[in-house]
Amino acid sequence: MSKRLVEGSEAIADAAIAAGCRFFAGYPMTPFTEVLENFAKKLPAVGGVCVNAESELEAVGMAWGALATGARAATGSTGQGLSLMQESFSEITLAELPLVAFNMARGQGDYFQSTRGGGHGDYRHIVLAPMDITEAVELTQLAFHLADVWRNPVLVQGDYLLAHTAEAVDVAPIDFGPVAPKDWAADGTMSGTGQSRIISPLGIGKRNTPGPGMEAHMQAVADKLARIAAGEARAETGFVDDAEHLVVAFGTPAKFVRYAVRVLRERGLRVGYVRPITLWPFPTEAVAEAATGKRSVLVFEINAGQMVDDVRLAVLGAAPVSSIGGISTDSSGFGVGALLDVEVIAGRIENAVGVAA
Amino acid sequence: MNEPVLHRVGDKLPLLLQSGEHDLCPGCGEPVALRILLETIAELGMAASTVGVVGIGCYTVFSRTLDVDLVQALHGRAPSVATGVKRMLPDKTVFTLQGDGDMVNEGLQEVLHTAARGENVTCVLLNNGVFGETGGHMTATSVIGQRTKTSLEGRDADYHGYPIVIGDLIARLEGAAYVGRGSVQSAGAVARTKRMMRKAFETQRAAKGFSLVEVLTMCPTGWFVPTAEGPSYMGETLAQVHMMGELKAR
Hints:
heterodimer, A: alpha/beta, Rossmann fold, 7-stranded mixed beta sheet, 40% helix, B: alpha/beta, 11 helices, globular
């Protein structure tokens, strides 16, 4: 295949379909709407289904049902809509269904929601945060793979910029390796055999094939989450080795930060960066290692300061950590504000490390 | 009243049940309604091609014993989950099992939209007009005058509002192809309800659209009446508002 100029929302739908996604349900909400539009346009052509659900609660419920049959299925919204889905997110995680969800967020204020979860109980979702459309094509497909491997929901965290800008990309299927057959799927074929299946968050099983029970089931899911935390953290680092200062950023703003770091290097400032690609599990080791011996660690994020907590937990006092991002949006509240600018970011880094502008 | 079929089913475990054991209260109508559902699926030859989606209520205990591939849904969300199942498995038979608290309180929007879309699934409502599992609280189908733990002097329209007669509401939606309301208060009622159940699943099998079978079930515990008075209490209260009969057949 050759490269084609496409908007992020279309590339994400293409990548999901290339990964085998055959069901999508969603409810329109800016800046996520075009992701839903593209699934509605593209899924029927491959024998799939896209439902314009009556609410976010119903959208996630429909995805739940599609997943239970063994299909690859997804839903999505902005953070506001995902707030409505949190009850189901909690229980889908305990039911160990491989949901993929997309958050085309308004800024980066959903970091806590994505990494801590807004729902009840002990659960985490793997959170992948692409910095651009090329990476979104890869991480969207990786999301479906990881969801199946771990039988755990995976969230792809984007924003207005990711969904609404265009890049030349090649959406070819990526082979991440085999996944176990879905012999747990409730597809009706075991009904009446005495060995019928149940997909439940409660760990109950059936009379003939008992489950482990609530406590043991919740502990097993917690143990699985610990294994994910130990094995799935991803991060990119740059200019770290000789740096005196470190900047940490994720998502589309990280691409601006990366550029600002290069600009500052040309001006003689020894600064490097770490870009968490997984927000959960947070790349604690990569951040800790990169922060070793640095005079300062700066966190740039488009919110009032959320990821900075995880950076502090990673650095554990080995270097001073401060927040140089902030709330920044356009007049609609959905889009890109004045802070997302290389010179503005470079200026904030210089201010923080005491370089006169 | 004593139709031969009732003698036959009364002393035999339904095909799609792994065990007859349950810990529901004496006089509860839900096991009888469940038997109607399971027998219908088996008799229509759909035993090996059915997926159920179960809501949250007393009947959820049957998740362990129903010998049907099941998805346990959240309270109220079963019709949406069933939608996802059916869209991926259009050749399979898909049903939901829900109570009135589940379907008419928490999940009213879900069942209405699923019916309006004409989703080709069958929703089975066990309607006893009370939250049985939590110990006897008012639901959206509790009738005027009904005493519950949250309507101690009886449901008062001025204070608590009016009940929703869900079957009638759904029957008016274009996407609904079959709606019937029966009960399990007598042998005759059981036989009539079973015919409704059969028609509902035949409607789904013919891909005509959404079907609902509402079954009025006794809950003497949640009604605070002696066990033996359950059937007569139902006839005098719930059945006077939620009128039995076939509400729609396409």
